[in-house]
C-alpha cells in the first residue's frame, strides 16, 4: 500500500493489516512521522513531534507482534494527543507560553491506558491556549489551520487533533471537551469526535479548564475507530474520584448497523434555530437517512437549552479562576490578552451567580433526562456554521450577523452541562467543500447507543471517505 | 397530676396518659396555653400563641381518642414550632419584620406530618431574624431569654424552642439547624436536639437560610421524645427533591439502653481545644459514663474540622444571597443591621471562594466518613461555653478572650457541612447552674445509632430531670 493511501486508512483497517503482519508498526509510524514533517508546515497541527521516541515504540511493538504477543486493535497504531495530557518527561504546554517548559513527572491515566494497549505516541497536538475557546486556535506555536481550507480555522479547542486526523497525520487522537472542544473541531474538519459521559473517562493528569465540565474523549476518522479508542480509555480510575465504576461494555459489539426501531428525538427548540442554511439541509437529510435505516423520529422539547451559553460560561470561568489565580499574579504578560480576559473575569464572578448557573444546570439535566426517557438519542447539528476564516469574528446567518465564538459552541454546550454523552459524525459538505457535523446525544453511560446510531448512519454514507487536498 | 408537674413530664409519658385516657388532650393543651400566657412574659419564647386554634385541635383529638381512633404517641400532644415553618393561614415571620404579615398558603410538609400524627400546634416559636446566628435571638418580638437564667441567651437560632421546652411550655418542638441552630440552644437550655442526616427530613415549606446546610429536626426534653418526633417527620417527600428514599427505621426500637461493644471516637484535634474548663470536665465524665455502660472509646483524627467555620460561613452567606437579594433592595431598613450585614456580604462573595469552600467541605466529608468507618459515633462537646449573658460579645476561655458568636457554633458546624446526623443531650451543669450539652455525631442515616447512645447515656444520668426555676 502506498504511503499516501496508508495514511488515510482507518485505525481499524490499519489494525487488521498490523495484526496480519502485512504492515509493520514501524512502517505505519514512519509514514506518519514523514507526513508530519512534510505537510504540517501548512497545518501547524503538532506542537511536539516525538519522532525518535515514536519510532522506538514502534520497533518494540513490531517485535512484540513478531513474537506473537499481539495486544489488540491499538497495538502499533500511531496516535497523537492534545497537548494538555500529561506525558512523563515530555513537554506538555496546554498550548500556553506559561507551560512551555513543563515536563510532567507522570503520565495521564488515559496515556498509560493507550500505551498499555500498545498505541504509539507520535506527538502532542496544537490546541487553544489553556483550552479556552478563543476563535482561533492561538497557542504558543500559533494558529492551526483547517486542512479543507488552510485559510480557515479547524475549530477548537482540540483543533490540532481534528486537523491532523483529517490530513492523515495520525490514526486516532485524544481531545478534551469543556464546551464542545472535541465535537466542534470534529464537525469543522469532517471527522468523528466523541465526548463520553461525565465520569466515564479519567481526567487524572489532564490540565484542567473547568473540573465539572471537562471531559476526555477520542477523535478519529470513523465511528469504529472511536469505539476502539474509547474501549481502551474508559472506566474507573482511583486517581480521579469523579470517575464511575459502571461496567464498560464492548463498544464494537454495538456496531451492528441495525437501528431498526431506534427512537430519535428532534429538539423543537433552540437546536435548529439560527442555522446556516446548508447545515440545516444536511442535518435534515441525515435524519431522513436514519429514518430510512429504520429509526423512528419524534419531536422533543428542551426549552432550557437556551441557557447553556450563560450557565456554561459562568461555571467554566468560575472553576478556572482557582487554577489560574497564581499564574495571573506571576505570569500575567505570558497569557494572550483574550484568553487572559476570561480568566480575569473568572476571578470576579460572584458566588450567587455561580450558584444560579448550577441551578439552571440542574433543570437542564432534568429536562434532557426526561426527553431521553422517551427516545434513545437526540439528533442535532453539531455546529450552526461551517468553518470560519482565520481572524473572522462575525458571520452572517441569513440576514443576521452573529458572533462566531459563541455560535461555534452554541449546540455543544448543553451536553457538557448535563454530562450526557455526545458524538459528532460527518454528515455532508457545503457547496464550498467544508465539512458538516451531525450530533447525537445519548443517555448517561449509553455511549454504545450513540456509537451504534452514528455507525449505522456512517454505513449509509460516504462522507467519511473524502480526504482534503492541501 | 398537678399542672406544674404535668407541664414538665416527657412527651412519651404524656402520650401514655393520653392513650390511657388519664389525661385529655384538652387538659394538656390548656395547661400549656395557660403557662405560656402566664410565664412567657419572662422568656419571650413564643412569637405567636395559637390558643383558640390549639384548643379546637385538642377537642377534636380528644373526641377521636374517645371514639377509639388513637393515632399514636403524638396524638393530642401540644407542640410548637420555630416560626420559619410555613403554617397555612398562620403568620410565619421567620423572626423578621419583613415577613411580619406573611400568611403561607400551605403547610410545611413536616407540619402536615405532625398534624397527621395527631399533634396539637400550640404556637410559633421565637428565633433569630431569618435564622442568622447573631449572638442574641433578636427577632421582631425581641430577644428570647434562657429559663436557667433569664439574663442569659438561650442560644440560637432555634432559641425559642429550647427555652419553651426547658420551661415546660410545650412537649416537643421543631427547629432548624444550618450551623448548629438546633443543637446550640439544646445544649444551652439543657434539652435534647437532633439534627438528622441531610435528606432525612423534608424542608418543603421551611423558610431557607442556606439550602445545602439547612436541616430540620426535633427538639425535646428526652431522647425518647426526639425519637418519637423524628419518626413522624422523617422520610422522602416528593416536594423536596433533596430528601432521600432510604427506609425510615423504627427509632424507638433502637432505645434498648444496651450499648455494650459500641465504638466511640474522640476527636484528637479541634473539638476539645478552647473549651470552658467545666464543659471539658463534664464531657470527659460523660465519656466515662458511656464507657462504664459498655462502650469502647478510641481516638480519631479530624484535622479538617478547623476549616468548618470559614467554609460554613462562605457557603451559608453565598446561598442566602439569592434569597435576600430582592428584600435587600425593597426592605433594606427592615433588617436588623447585624443580620443585614451578613446578607449584604453574601451578595459579594466570589464564586471562586464559594467553590474552594465546597472543596474543603468534600475533604471534611471524606475525613468524617473515614473516622466513622472505625467507630459508631463521634463524641464531642456541643458548645465550648455555657450560655453567655444577653448583649455579651466576648468571653474568656482560660486566659483567652474569644468572640462568642463564632465560638457558639464552632463544634456544631462540621456536621452541617458533612450532612451527618448529630444529637445534643444534656450532660451536666456548671457550678453556676447552666446546662452543658454532649454531642454525638453518627453515620449518614444512622440516627438510630446516636439516639441509642444518647438514650443509654440519659438512662445513666439525671440531668434531664432538672427543671429551671424562673
What does this structure look like?
Two copies of one chain form a homodimer. With 470 residues, chain A is an alpha/beta fold. Helices cover 39% and strands 15% of the residues of chain A. Chain A has helices at 3-6, 11-19, 25-43, 51-66, 109-116, 159-166, 183-189, 223-233, 277-292, 308-330, 337-348, 351-374, 404-408, 413-418, 447-459; strands at residues 46-49, 78-82, 120-125, 173-177, 192-195, 215-220, 263-267, 296-300, 377-381, 394-397, 400-403, 422-429, 435-442. An eleven-stranded mixed beta sheet of chain A has the order 1-3-2-4-6-5-12-13-9-7-8. A two-stranded antiparallel ribbon of chain A has the order 10-11. In chain A, helix 6 (159-166) runs parallel beside helix 7 (183-189). The longest helix of chain A has 24 residues, at 351-374. Chain A is globular and about 60 Å long. The model of chain A has no long low-confidence stretch (mean pLDDT 96). The interface between A and B is medium-sized, with 17 and 17 residues.
Amino acid at each position: 500500500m502506498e504511503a499516501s493511501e496508508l495514511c488515510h486508512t482507518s485505525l481499524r483497517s490499519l489494525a487488521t493489516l498490523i495484526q496480519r503482519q502485512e504492515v509493520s508498526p514501524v512502517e505505519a509510524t514512519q509514514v506518519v512521522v514523514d507526513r508530519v514533517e512534510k505537510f504540517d508546515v501548512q497545518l501547524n497541527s503538532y506542537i511536539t513531534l516525538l519522532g525518535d521516541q515514536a519510532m522506538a515504540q514502534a520497533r518494540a511493538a513490531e517485535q512484540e507482534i513478531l513474537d506473537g504477543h499481539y495486544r489488540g486493535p491499538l497495538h502499533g497504531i500511531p496516535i497523537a494527543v492534545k497537548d494538555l495530557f500529561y506525558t512523563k518527561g515530555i513537554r506538555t504546554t496546554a498550548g500556553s507560553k506559561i507551560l512551555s517548559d513543563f515536563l510532567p513527572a507522570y503520565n495521564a491515566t488515559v496515556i498509560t491506558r493507550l500505551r498499555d494497549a500498545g498505541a504509539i505516541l507520535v506527538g502532542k497536538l496544537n490546541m487553544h491556549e489553556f483550552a479556552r475557546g478563543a476563535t482561533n486556535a492561538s497557542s504558543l506555536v500559533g494558529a492551526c489551520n483547517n486542512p479543507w481550507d488552510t485559510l480557515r480555522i479547524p475549530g477548537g479547542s482540540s483543533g490540532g487533533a481534528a486537523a491532523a486526523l483529517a490530513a492523515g497525520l495520525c490514526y486516532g487522537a485524544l481531545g478534551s471537551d469543556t464546551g464542545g472542544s472535541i465535537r466542534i473541531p470534529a464537525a469543522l474538519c469532517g471527522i468523528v469526535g466523541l465526548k463520553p459521559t461525565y465520569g466515564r473517562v479519567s481526567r487524572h493528569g489532564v490540565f484542567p479548564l473547568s473540573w465539572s465540565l471537562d471531559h476526555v474523549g477520542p477523535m478519529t476518522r470513523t465511528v469504529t475507530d472511536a469505539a476502539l479508542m474509547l474501549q481502551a480509555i474508559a472506566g474507573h480510575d482511583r486517581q480521579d474520584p469523579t470517575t464511575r465504576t459502571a461496567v464498560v461494555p464492548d463498544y464494537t459489539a454495538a456496531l451492528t448497523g441495525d437501528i431498526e426501531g431506534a427512537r430519535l428525538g428532534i429538539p423543537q427548540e433552540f437546536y435548529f434555530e439560527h442555522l446556516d442554511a446548508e447545515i440545516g439541509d444536511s442535518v435534515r437529510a441525515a435524519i431522513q437517512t436514519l429514518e430510512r435505516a429504520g429509526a423512528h423520529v419524534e419531536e422533543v422539547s428542551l426549552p432550557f437549552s437556551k441557557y447553556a451559553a450563560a450557565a456554561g460560561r459562568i461555571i467554566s470561568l468560575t472553576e478556572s479562576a482557582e487554577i489560574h489565580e497564581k499564574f495571573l499574579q506571576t505570569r500575567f504578560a505570558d497569557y494572550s490578552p483574550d484568553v487572559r480576559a476570561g480568566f480575569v473575569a473568572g476571578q470576579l464572578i460572584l458566588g450567587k451567580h455561580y450558584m444560579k448557573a448550577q441551578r439552571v444546570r440542574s433543570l437542564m439535566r432534568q429536562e434532557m433526562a426526561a426527553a431521553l426517557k422517551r427516545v434513545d438519542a437526540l439528533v442535532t447539528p453539531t455546529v450552526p456554521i461551517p468553518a470560519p476564516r482565520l481572524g473572522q469574528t462575525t458571520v452572517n446567518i441569513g440576514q443576521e450577523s452573529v458572533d462566531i465564538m459563541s455560535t461555534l459552541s452554541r449546540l455543544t454546550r448543553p451536553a457538557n452541562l448535563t454530562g450526557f454523552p455526545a458524538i459528532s459524525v460527518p454528515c455532508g459538505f457545503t457547496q464550498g467543500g467544508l465539512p458538516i457535523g451531525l450530533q447525537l446525544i445519548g443517555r448517561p453511560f449509553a455511549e454504545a447507543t450513540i456509537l451504534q446510531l452514528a455507525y449505522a448512519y456512517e454505513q449509509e454514507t460516504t462522507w467519511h471517505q473524502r480526504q482534503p487536498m492541501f
